[in-house]
Amino acid sequence: MKKTTHSPWSWIPTLYFAEGLPYVAVMTVSVIMYKRFGLSNTDIALYTSWLYLPWVIKPFWSPFVDILKTKRWWIVSMQLLIGAGLAGIAFTLPTPFYLQASLAFFWLMAFSSATHDIAADGFYMLALDDSEQSFFVGIRSTFYRLAMITGQGLLIILAGYFEKSTGNIPLSWSITFFIMAGLFVAFMVYHRFALPRHAEDSGKEAHTQKMVLIEFGNTFKSFFTKKGIGLAIAFILLYRLAEAMLVKLASPFLLDAREIGGLGLNTQEVGLVYGTVGVIALTLGGIIGGVVASRNGLKHWIWPMALAITLPNAAYLLLSFYQPDNFFWVNVAVAIEQFGYGFGFTAYMLYLIYFSQGEHKTAHYSICTGFMALGMMIPGMAAGWIQEHLGYEHFFIFIMIITIPTLILIPFMKVDKEFGKSKKELQPFEEVTTEQ
User: How far is 330 from 241, CA to CA, in rounded Å?
Assistant: First the structure.
């Protein structure tokens, strides 16, 4: 493989920071923003859950990113589109039709971000040799996490600061999104020059269109004829069932007034507890989960990890029951839940990688992540409606009840040597566990 003159240090950190930030903006920042605009939990959960769709159907257009143009071209172009989407949101937030317009621009961002993910990950594997890929796994993951902290933490705190200083919620969030738009224009310009031009990044395939379509069909056929496919799909869809609903109402619960069952935090406090303390705990849980799984294997840890991703949800039930005034206990509860989620999520991602092994493992893993996004989208759509009918306390009781399907599935999961457990196979696991 031909080496390039650009050091990976000059583009990997910024590329994966740019990969993480729009995902956080679409999935988390949008929820908090719409809550501050006064939307109901039903509408927030329904509308923002639909934004998962591009990541659900991503496998259907990912082959064309390989065929058309170069991955470098896709990266730069998608960063420009993401910046345009962020600017569009910023322009429309102060208008009377902000909801319809901002959702349209969020959709543009979501599709652009999903396409950017495909191109960025493909470029990473193309531009680096095996040893470099292994070395920079931790670097890319770190900067992806920094993007999460920036989006869920710093930008939310910044929006809260503007809310206090201007007294104008639409203007405050408009300024925040303008800042993000400017950041992505800067990313686009920088990567236009910083990304190496690799000889193999030609965007050309030595196949006819008919052969491409045949191979495309064979990829899906081989996935759905895998042994144990029914149980695997059930596991992918149900393992995070409770979390899919909880994540949509966590921020609204922290923001809602105490009289209606919330904790009455302000925007800056939510940015600190959920976007900073929570993300740090999530990251630590994922790191520790990866370490123990690499030593003893998934079969040994699948039960502890399944319990870790389900039982700590009770932290929100306790918060809704006691509604503590002390901000410290809110941070402790959120940190416990997020740490458990990070630790338990390890088993989920490792199973997806093991199940994807085979001739088409890259494409099959992409299909698995599509089902993973679907498992978040559909439950999330109903979460707000359920919460508004039950109230927060009973909603969190409901969350604990729907952890049961996850635990019922575990005894039936086949996790043995045929999945593979060599260090070589565990390397991709290190890449993905810290980037979700």
Answer: 23
